[in-house]
Design brief:
By secondary structure, this protein is mainly alpha-helical. The protein contains three helices and no strands. Helix content is about 50%, strand content about 0%. The two termini are about 20 Å apart.
Length: about 70
């Protein structure tokens, strides 16, 4: 995710995170559905046991808890 934000995300002043890959780079309005599809695609390629965006959110949150990251 950090790699995307640093190197893959189009330069824009828009605060939204996800943008279309193809030109023109504009915000992905159906981001929930699109994100779930993208997560399922990539998790399928690396053989995640329970693919889906919930698993991605959970593992991200767990890593933050393990690193004693402040919830504030």
């Amino acid at each position: 995710m950090l790699d995307y934000l640093r190197r893959g995300r189009p330069d824009t002043t828009d605060r939204r995170v996800f943008f279309r890959i193809s030109a023109p780079a504009r915000a992905d309005h159906a981001h929930g559905r699109v994100l779930s599809c993208k997560v399922l695609f990539w998790q399928g390629r690396i053989e995640v046991s329970r693919p889906g965006s919930h698993t991605l959110r959970h593992s991200c949150a767990q890593r933050l808890v393990d690193a004693e990251f402040s919830s504030r």
